[in-house]
Structures are given as structure tokens and as C-alpha cells.
Amino acid sequence: MAHPIRTTLWYLLLTAGAILTLLPFGWMVLTSLQPAATTLTATMTWLPKSLQWLNYWHVWQAAPFARYCLNSLLVTVATTAGELFTSLLAAFAFTHLRFYGQRWLFALMVALMLVPSELLLIPNFITLAHLHWVNTYAGLIVPWLASPFMLVALHQAFKAQPQTLYLAARLDGASDWQYLWHVLVPINRPIITAVALLQVIGSWNAFMWPLIVTNADALRTLPVGLMTFTSDQGTNYPLLMAASVCVILPLFILYLACQKYLILGVTASRLKG
Amino acid sequence: MLNQTPTAKSTLKALLYLAPLLVLTAVFILWPLLNAFLISLYTKYNYYTGHVGALGWANFGYLWHDPAFHLATRNTLLLVLIAMPVSVALALAIALGINQIPRLAGFFQTVYFLPFVTSTVAIGLVWNWIFRLDGGLLNRLLSLLHIPAIDWLNDPHYSLGALILVCIWQGLGFNIILFLAGLNHIDHRFARAAKLDGASDWQRFTNVTWPLLMPITILVIVNTSITNFKVFDQVYALFHGAAGPGDADLTLMVYLYQKFYVENQMAVAAACGVVLFLCVSALTLITVGYFHHRQRQLGGR
Hints:
The complex is a heterodimer of chains A (273) and B (301). In chain A, 74% of the residues lie in helices and 0% in strands.
């Protein structure tokens, strides 16, 4: 580069920012390995002599933590899969089939993207109460299975496919159903993975809705369970931090494995919308 | 099949594909959308008996006179007005930096995006422990600089600042990714042409990069503002379910939650939701309108 000094300054700035970004994670991991009593005293050493890996074992034994984990996994997988199913079918209909009211129905779905889910919180809770779905998996999952955002993202991808491909498949005797699942979905795997990843992150980290529709330990998801863990454990920070690591780590691993899809999803959904 | 006019048969077939989405949308988005406005007009609403008085503006009147609502509005506006500009400026600087350096760009991008995939509640609890008076990381670091310890979470002078810091930290990565995508879209020939014409780096930024980046910048501004308008998880985790010392961190969403879930005043909470929705919509419309206006000024592309 022509300006070594400027490049060095950029590196310094970026490194400082990266350290500040990573600081909370580092503090979390360090604390999670401390003996329980030391954290609140000034004598706590930054790196304890004997790392308390057992803290992680205690987390799994304390509270129904494994249950929270299972619930989070179930809710995340079911929400993402269900949302993909409804959106894929609808995106196919909007791009490859013709029906009355097609244009205004799509315009409606685009407009619904702007509705903040916070506004729907109270009426949806009342609907759930009428259905007796409070404190059920259905209550955690079903209200999120329709996503205008995912529909519009898939619609853009499907619309970009050449019509000749569809006509060729039809001439070869493929039904619409076969074309969707055996041609359209495999071709568009990157964008489908991307929107699915965004939903996985959203569901796994969701807090307000699970907080409101569950009040039984058996149904709590990880973030809600973590909050109850706080009151149970008082100021036992090593255990609390170990629990936080358990909540954060799965998505870290997923992110590092699928980074390019995730960034594709973020940019594709926001730039064109 | 394509480019045909619809028939009854093709419509029926399409409806089969659309049915799951349409039914769910009707029940869980469209109906509650209308219902949210309706509930906000209920007076003397008793959720348990389903009793509703006449429809009226009483709930909005309640908000108008409720000091707690004023406080929540003030805090939310402060949060947005401080966190948004700082976040946008930092994200732009970091994205420009990542775009300039010859090596490690991917590494920095990965690091800066980590908070986006992090559970707000889990890291909020970590922040709570960082800000603690006794033993927290921040005060430990301050003591190295011989600065007396500050009770970040219990001193109303500092607690909103602590919340703002957490919000900036969490939202930064997303904005950086958007700016990076915007920078990649800019044609490098513009910058090169400006360089040949003898423009300095700063001139190239203000006259070439910045105007071309304007659409993305507006998107980032709208997005950051909306996200910070709706802050809830951070407050809940940071103050263990409370709204900060003396409600110093009461935001509109926390107010809505308290009315709805704690005090069972559903209609008032719904009215608060409507106010929130109108604020966010107005914000979006104004910025998007401004964006279109500018596009037309620039000749439209």
C-alpha cells in the first residue's frame, strides 16, 4: 500500500475496536472458570490457578437447564422449518402460477413486512389465550410460521430464475410440486440457507414472546430460563457466566461454519428491500 | 404456464400453495394488526371477563397524563438520539477501515459481527456483571487508572449511559456489514477517476464515496433508530427484570411490558404499542421520503 502510516493507523483502530467487541466474551469465559467465592472480591486473579471446568457441569445439573436447551432446539427447528415450508410454497405460487388478485395480495405481504411484531404482542397473546395455547409448544411456534420477510426474500430469488427452465421441466413431465422441490429449491440453496440462518438466530435468541407465553419451567427456552437462573443463583457469577456461555456458544459455532451465507442473507434482504 | 391470464382453475391451484401462509398471516398478523388498534380504544377493559366499555380515546389520554409514560418516551428518545449517530459513525469508520486494509479484513469482519448472533439476554447478564460496583470489570479497569469506582447500574446518572453502551455494542456489527456491502457496490472507477483528477483522500471520501453511500447510510439510520426504539431485552437482562434505578432506564417497550404483563392494563399497553408503531412508521416514511427526494435531485438512477 502507498501509505504505510495510514494503513498502520487503520490497523490500530480496528484492533482497538475488535478488543472492545471481544471484551465481554473474554470476561464471560474468564469468570465462568473462577471458583465461586472469588469473583466479588478484589483479590480475584485474572486467570485462576485451577480452572473450574466443573462449573459447566454444575450448570447442567442445576435448574432444568438441559430442558431449556431441548425446548430452544425444538422451537428453533420447528419455527424455521415451518416458516420455510409456508414461504417456499407461497413464493412459488407468486412467481410461477397465475391467480386472481395476485398483485394486490403480494403488495399486501410487502406492506406487512413493516408491521413490528411488538404491536402484535397483545392481540396475539389474547388469541393464544382463547385457543388455550398459553404454556404450550404450539403457542411458542405457530404464531411465527408466517413471515412476510422470508416470503419476499424467496420471491426475489425465484423470480430471477429463467422461465425456460420451468417450461423445460414441464415439457419433461414434471409437476409443479416436483419442479419446486427438485429444481427450484436445490438451485436456490444459498439464499434459502441464508434466510433460514437468520430465522435460526432470531428464534434461538427470542426473549419477549417466550417470556410472555410461558410460565412453566418445562416450556421455558434458554434465554427465559437464563433469567430465572439469575434469581435462583443470586450472585454466583461463575455459574451464571458458564450458563451464558452455553447459550451463546451454539450460535457462535453455527456462525463460524456458515458465515458467508449469513452475510449474504443480511445484505440480500436489506439492500433490495 | 407463465404469462397467462388467470383462470378459475389456476387460481384454485395457486390457493392450495398459498393456503398455509395466508391462513397463518390472517390469524397471526392481519387480524392482530386490526385488533391492536381496536384494543387501544377499549375503555374499562377487563381482560379476564372480556368486559369492554365504550370505545374511546381514554387510553391515549391516560398515556398523555402518565408521568411514567413521559419518562419512557424521554428515555427512548435519548437512547435513539445518542446511540444512533454514534453507532452509524463508528460503523462507517470501521467499514471504511476494513475496506482499506490489505490483510485480515475477513478476520475483523468476523469479529465485529459476533454480537449480532449473540443472545441479547445472555450477553446482557454479562454486561450486568461488567458494570457491577463490587468486582465488575469496568470498575477494575477504572481503578487501574486511579478513577474511583462508579455504581453504573444503581446510579441514575450513569445507568442510561450503561444501557446506551450495550445497545451500541450489540448493533454495531449489523451496520458494519451493511456499510461493507454498500462500499463493495460502489464502482471503483469513480474513486480512481477522482484520484487522477488530483483529489485528496478526504476529498474523494466527501465528494465520491459519501454521496454514493447515501442510500445505505439512510438504510442504516432507519434500521438503527427502529431497533433502538424497541429496546427491551437489554434492559430486562441488565437490570434483572427491573427498569433501572428509579425507572432511569424505562423505555417504551419496557413500559408496554409492565402495563401488559405486570399490571394487566391491556388496553393502555395496546395504546402504547400503537404510539410506538406510529413513531416508527413516521420515522421510516420521513427518511424514505427524504431518500426519494434526494434520488430525484441526483437525477435518479
